[in-house]
Amino acid sequence: MGCVSFDLQTLEKIKNGEILKGLRDSKKIPEPKRIELRTEILKYVSYYRVTFVSAKFIDRFNINQAIFYGMNRCLPIHLPLLASKNKENENSNATTPSGKEKISQSEDQLLDTKPFLLADGNYKLKITKPIEGYFSLPKGDDLIPSISAASILAKTYRDEYMEKMDLKHPGYGFAKHKGYGTEEHREALGKLGISPIHRLSFCKFLRKEGSEPTLF
What SS3 string covers 12-68? Predict the structure, then answer.
């Protein structure tokens, strides 16, 4: 979440109890360590889903509506989806902005706890079954391990996507700044104009010196 370029990415994760060391806000973790932590997270995760909401959706409905829509797409519909470890996480789960979703699920064993949503931010949400309730906390990605883990998965998958966009739309430096409003990115936009993956509603931030929201 919080990308200014291309998509809004949301991920809600339900863990099976284990807490890994080093979990915190993904933006405060060096990239190599994020990749390492993602590998460990996927070993222990009970359920996760990454989904993208398009830039066009955000421009049309606003960022908050995009967040709520993304969250709803992440939530499981049926309890059987809330299963324990999935040995095929990396192979069977892929989320892309084209509408496909990265989902982790297993058939072998259901969770023995009631599903509960933890969210980063300050939101009032309408939660339906099978989710029993939710807790929304500002800076939760730096305070609650499961939200930290979710933010790490979300950022690493999104960063990889931005590297692919760097090949598709060369010159903007997506692989380097990952869509954030750095000086390099602002200069590229001034020279090349807005690409098809930029959020039009967020480009105004580029006029503010030193601001670095993401543009996708």
Answer: EEEECCCCCCCCCCHHHCCHHHHHHHHHHHHHHEEEEEEEEECHHHHHHHCHHHHHH
Q: Which two tokens stand for residue 64?
A: 């908050």
Q: Which residue has the tokens 């807790």?
A: 135
Check if the beta carbon of residue 3 is closer than 8 Å to that of residue 216: yes
Residues facing residue 135 across a β-bridge:
118
CA distance linking residue 206 with residue 192, whole number of Å: 14
How many other CB atoms sit within 10 Å of the CB of residue 63?
A: 19
pLDDT digits (tens, 9 = 90+) for 94-109: 444 544 455 454 433 4
Backbone φ and ψ for 85, nearest 5 degrees, come out as -40, 140
Q: Which residues contact 211 (CB under 8 A, 6 or more apart)?
A: 181, 205
Asked whether 149 and 16 are in contact (CB, 8 A), the reply is no
Structure tokens at 172: 């903007």
Dist CA 200 CA 108 (whole Å):
45
Are 122 and 149 spatial neighbours (Cβ–Cβ below 8 Å)?
no
The pLDDT score that the predictor gives to residue 133 is: 84
pTM of the full predicted structure?
0.75
Which alpha helices (DSSP H) does 122-195 contain, by range? 145-168, 174-177, 183-192
In sequence order, what are the residues at sequence separation of 6 or more whose Cβ sits closer than 8 angstroms to the Cβ of residue 212?
180, 181, 182
